[in-house]
Amino acid sequence: MRLPPNARALFDLRRRGRIPVPGPFGHVSVLPDWGLTVAGAYVIAPPSIEPADLDFCFVAGLSVAIFCRLAELSPVDTWLYEIILAVMDSDPTSIAVIDLDQAAAGLDHGLVAMYVRRASNDR
């Protein structure tokens, strides 16, 4: 496993016990290609890299936004599903899935799904 492109600084920050300042989409955004940027911390997870090969350990305990273009995904394309699972394996507090094309009309239009970690019975 390896870190996603553009993740080294976030990984180093977390190793020092710090967290990134939350941006408008949470602590960390996951973008599908290099041609995109968002305010705040972000990493790149292009469809050309198998999501299961990426280590998202640096998102543990943080809120994450995964950006995609749903119109470009075919019905048999599993990239979005696999990237959600790869991020989920690292135990973030929440994952928002945002369609870039719909988000242009407002974030409330672009939000496709929201996954939130359930509170533990240990507390």
Order of strands, widest sheet: 2-1-3-4-5
Over the alpha carbons, how many angstroms does the gyration radius reach? 14 Å
Separation of the first and last Cα atoms: 32 Å
Number of β-strand runs: 5
Identify the overall geometry: globular
Give the overall average pLDDT.
Answer: 89
Helix content: 10-25%
H-E order: HEEEHEHHE
Low-confidence stretches: none
Largest sheet: 5 strands, mixed
Structural features:
123 residues, alpha/beta
Secondary structure blueprint with pairings:
Blueprint (H helix, E strand, L loop, with lengths): L7 H8 L12 E4 L9 E4 L18 E6 L10 H10 L5 E6 H4 L3 H4 E6 L7
Parallel strand pairs: 1-2, 1-3, 3-4
Antiparallel strand pairs: 4-5
Explain what the structure shows.
It is a single chain. The chain is an alpha/beta fold. The chain is built from 4 helices and 5 strands; from the N terminus they run αβββαβααβ. It has a 5-stranded mixed β-sheet with strand order 2-1-3-4-5. Helix 2 links the parallel strand 3 and strand 4 (94-99). The protein is globular.
